[in-house]
Amino acid sequence: MLKTALFAFMLLIYGGDAFGQDAGGFADAAIMTVVIDPGHGGDDTGAQGPSGTDEKDITLSIALKLADALRERLGAIVLLTRETDVFVPLEARTAFANANRADLFISIHANAAANRDARGIETFFLSMDSTDEDARRLAAFENSADSSVEDVFLEGGNDLKDILVDMASTSSHHESSRLAEAVHMSMLGKTGREGRGVKQAPFVVLVGATMPAILVEVGFISNPSEERLLTSKKEQSLAAAAIADGVASFRDLTAKRRSFIEVSGKTIEK
Length: 270
Ligand SMILES: [Zn+2]
Hints:
This protein has 8 helices and 6 strands. The chain is α/β, with parallel strands linked by helices. It has a 6-stranded mixed β-sheet, sandwiched between helices.
């Protein structure tokens, strides 16, 4: 029942020709619209650090700083899926981005692991298949934040899987991997922190996004030293600036690639 409802919802948010929609329209427009999604909120605290820090507070704080950075440095129109400590269902976050015709969707989260030594930054884009077991477990945890969502990705052979397979061939999906790469490299360069790679996993919050969409795990809240870093306003600003820089370089690379495609007369960009 829930699965059927989710499928119907996804058809609704995809609309008719969304699969063929050209992604990243900002390259042709003067101003781009970015939707930032601070993970969790309200009763959904997300992961908790050893000193009691809630993931939902870290994600909101970094998201607000990122919004400022994108407005100031890129002149972007920035919308947030939440600006206060409230619960927002996962699918509503992506639907919000689609409804506002966003050019990019960036979900901010903090990681957690049973191993307290685990550390570093991971940047994700959507895929049916997880990069590794840790990525699969992480997606299952993030998806469990919304009790109305079943972990339908693991069942296989359903309509949702077909949609994901279709999504994998859209230009926005290719753009998502490029955006993830640009943001990840900027995060490592600017923060000097450890990188765990650009990965893929079935995050519900990324399903149905009709624009390049990524999820950034800004660090491990379960690691005592990273928990301290994540609560530092200075480090939060640094992370926000790094993500904004990544968005800027993605925008520039996209514009360059498009002008090359126009000059060379190619019609397919992949
Ligand atoms: Zn999270």
